[in-house]
Specification:
The chain is mainly α and 150 residues long. It has one domain. 61% of the residues lie in helices and 0% in strands. The chain has 8 helices and no strands. This is Ubiquinone biosynthesis protein COQ4. It comes from Flavobacterium humidisoli. Keywords: Ubiquinone.
Length: 150
């Protein structure tokens, strides 16, 4: 029930967040074209992630799925919250991140150890949350992960 509630909160907040808070330009790339990138590239890995999870690219929110790919974070509700803890540890600050962390901590107090593990993983990585990943789709994913200690 709490997973359902959190997912509904996300769905209700996604459109206003995209419209009013995300200032970046949409990538304007088709999901299918990602599979044309070299096999070890970030673009190909993103395409695999999207197809495997039956997702589509979400306009202005493409970076979110890239973070999943780079950090090898799952898509369950508590893993999504953990990814926000990771990003907080990596230096990202936003109202949306704070809301997810606060609500996630309240709804999933038994996952606090996992959340702090994710936070510490983010702290150990070099800051990368701010990068323009749309320009990095051809790069080998392993190179990015090693460079930023992800």
């Amino acid at each position: 029930m709490r997973d359902y509630l959190i997912e509904k909160l996300y769905e209700c907040s996604k459109k206003p967040y995209q419209k009013y808070f995300k200032k970046n330009q949409p990538w304007n790339i088709e999901k299918g074209l990602l599979m044309d990138f070299p096999e070890q590239s970030l673009g190909f890995s993103l395409g695999n992630f999207l197809y495997k999870n039956h997702f589509d690219l979400q306009e202005k929110l493409e970076d979110h799925d890239i973070i999943h790919v780079l950090t090898n974070t799952g898509i369950s509700v508590y893993e999504e919250i953990g990814m926000q803890y990771y990003l907080f540890g990596n230096g990202k600050r936003s109202l949306y991140l704070y809301m997810v962390i606060l609500s996630g901590t309240i709804f999933y107090p038994k996952r606090i150890k996992y959340f702090f593990q994710q936070y510490n993983r983010g702290r150990k990585a070099l800051p990368f949350h701010y990068l323009d990943f749309s320009k990095m789709l051809c790069m080998p994913i392993q190179t990015i992960q090693q460079t930023f200690k992800i």
